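Researcher: I've been going back and forth with a colleague about how dITP/XTP pyrophosphatase might be arranged in three dimensions. Neither of us has a model we trust, so I'd like an independent prediction. The organism is Desulfosporosinus orientis, in case that matters for your notes. Sequence below.
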Amino acid sequence: MKIILATQNKGKIRELQDLLVDEDIQVLSLKDIEGWEDVEENGETFADNAMLKARAAVEKTGLIALADDSGLEVDALGGRPGVFSARFAGEPKDDERNNNKLLQLLRDVPEDKRSARFRCALVVATPDGREFLTEGTVEGRILRERRGSDGFGYDPLFYVPDYSRTMAELTLAVKNKLSHRGQAFRKVIPILKSLKS
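Model: Here is an independent structure prediction for dITP/XTP pyrophosphatase. You can compare it with whatever you and your colleague have in mind.
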């Protein structure tokens, strides 16, 4: 069975391929699709944006499509940056500016009010119109300064209490095991198996 993962992110493609290595499911990506035009992600939630991308990929390819959207939710900011995580500090997208803005907005917020989570919504859409949603979350808190050099985005500021490290200080193997996207991807495997049979 062939499926399309609506992304050009090599890390996401590899992560899903690794999870499906024993399932006789071939994972294609947007790199394999001629004439793909990016979908405007104007949904109000991560699930909305994932749905938009999955539906567009099904329509373009006729294959079962997967698409995800994810980001950071900070409780002291009412859930922001949320769906605007990648462009929190404006365009063009820039991790450094996003982190600086986050630190600035939280500068007077006490330690016990700095709770946050990474959230991922993953949608599977089929050519016959069925749609499935899986989600994953990782709880943590936002530090006052960056720690660690592995990872990207908000990883250097996102502290995971269970590991006493930021996401940017964790090994890739540990990060993939606990990550919001890893959780959502693992939950989708039984769905894909059921669609294959």
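Researcher: What would you highlight for our discussion?
Model: I'd start with this: The longest strand covers residues 131-142. After that, consider the following. The chain is about 30% helix and 25% strand.
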